[in-house]
Queue: 2 jobs
Job 1
Amino acid sequence: MKRLACLLGSTLLAACAHGPTPPPPPGAIAVAVVTRSAVDNPLFTFGVVVDNGTPISVSSAEHLNFVAAGLTAGKHVVALRQLPAGCGAGTDSRELSLRGGDTVTVFFAVRCERTTGDLVLNTVTTGVELDPDGYAVTINGAARGTVSANGTMTVRNLAPGSHLVELAGLAANCAAVGAAAQAVDLVAGAAVSIEKNVTCRPTTGTLRLVTATAGTDLDPDGYVITLDEFTLRLHPNRTAVFGRYTPGDHQIAIADVEENCVLAGSVSRSFSLAAGDTVTVAMQVTCAAVGPGVAGFSAADPAADTMPATAGSSARAHDLVAITGRYTPDFLLLTLRFSANISAPARHAANSVYGFIDLDVDESAATGVEPGINIFGGNAEQGIEYEISLFGGDETSVELYGLDGSLGRVAVRFDGDSVTIRVPLSKLGRDDGNLSLTAVFGTYGRATDVAPNTGVVLARRPAAVAAAVAPPAATLQVHPGQRISETRPAVKWPRWP
């Protein structure tokens, strides 16, 4: 008994010596908040509260991480407060237990559902002459932008419920199919597609202008067509299509038909065009062979009289040996013969011939411009009104120039060492064919021969050829002794560099 008392006494004494058991040390809660908001939700703020303490403000545009320290062991509550409707983290209030001295992590992933819907508008336009700038879109009477005639437009973030969709600003020839306004029911978080149909009717017509030429010796540059106030030159066999042409009554005329060609019907015609219609106007022409004509003049040019090559240029030269002229009532047929075979400039061959022939139709040095031959050592007394240019010539035609520029193409035929040029007298101001001419020929790089070496070649229509042309057209009036080149800008006809 004595020993047991002693033992009990020592235990009590030990307990008294150590005192009561101390509490566990404080713990902490690590809080992480991430917000994923739908595109139609504006920025918002909400609070994070630990144990009903002071809320910590959080923006939906940022992530939050913080540690609440110094918390006693036991149960604690972390909660989200003042979240907008449609937003949540599953469980917005979380209960946690701390053992003491530990740290517990809590994560909130806040998600916000969409509160609005989207409208997808598809436009389908049929017909012709569609509205080029599309249509204006209104929803409930408010402008929402534009959509193309055949396109898609998405209008986002519309409130759930019924909306009236309408197209406006349609072209005068276009109309919506069905009711002008269409009701659409939207729900939050979804997209609804609708289709608006539009038809457009034609406001213009189409004109097909056809030139059809048969026979031989066709007009090389075609015909001048005047369509109302518009003028164009059309190949002898060609179709021109004029779309979007104004409906109504119209006039069309054909001109510059060479004298060996005959137009079927009147040179001037009228036609009516209705919206949406296509009208074809055919110009039918038949051309007869011009024939060889009657000899009028001939001029020889000395052989081997070409100009020497300059430094750095090719020694190759074209040597003209003769110019002859034959006449029909309507044409002057010029034949140029060289000492060797030649070819058209368009071939760009070694024997391609270039150059020009100047024509003085009134044979007066007081009118026209200075002859080009004088640039290359000639001494011609001429006033040039027309020039036949081989620069840019092809196998069948070369250019004819007047003082005001190009008069179109005239026919040519290359044959061995010769080329024959068929000049309509009507294009020379309806000249009678009595004129003076000078010429310069050469290779691509330089002039190599002039004709004649001195003076001019006189072209004379033989009496046997009846004149089928009217008297020459009136020429530009100048003071005695004054050249046209002094009263108007310099004429720029093709030349060698």
Note: Residues 56 and 484 are 98 Å apart (CA to CA).
Job 2
Amino acid sequence: MGHRWESQDWEFQDKGPQERNGNAEVDMTGKTPQFIDYSGSRAPDKHTHGDHSLDLWEPMIVPKEDIDAEIDRLASLAKPNNGVRRSRIVHPRSVNEKAHSWAPGVDVSLDVLLPGERTKAVRQNSGVVNFCIQGSGAMVQNGKSSGFGQYDVVTTPSMWVHEYVNDTDEIQVRLRYSNGALLERLNIHFIDENPPMHGARDDDLTETAEEIAEGGGGDDVGAGPTIALDFPLEWGLLIGVLGVAVLISAY
């Protein structure tokens, strides 16, 4: 893979007359909204709705030796404060973007969990698909534990509280796929690292936008946003297959 890019802390705060655009700040002083004419239908000399030609990202292969080296590096780290050893696999087009994705709408990471370890609970409004490439373990999702082994695919719907568990004596390695990259590009990706406890009432996990806006919810635990673009099961199965075909072809 050649180079390593470290993750960055992305902070969003009031910049006054400036607007954050990825890594750069754009001076908005004196700028106002504009009216742009979209009247009529598209014609050869008039792209009313913009240029819709496809800009496909170049296909790439991650060699086995690079994956193995990154597994070793992650395994050598001291246990992170949330228990997550993770490395994003980033397409060259996305290295300098906030999304750090493998494709425009999909991010891919390599996750490692050592024997006896367990991650802290988390939830997000993106869907997640895990493909186990080494070892085995379990996932606890909304209070229910499901075991998995090598080459199993496990899906996590949006806003489900979940943890990863390695209750074996072997290292656990997973490829983790998510549509979080799409939500990052829309600036609506929500990650809750202090979610409600497993077993909380269903409505604790699906607080409505109206209740949040009104400051309601009473004593409900863990109110979250309602922007929850589910990852359909079909996507999960497709991505699992792509994981084998694209990233594990050399593995």
Note: Helices lie at 64-76, 180-185, 202-205, 209-213, 233-247.
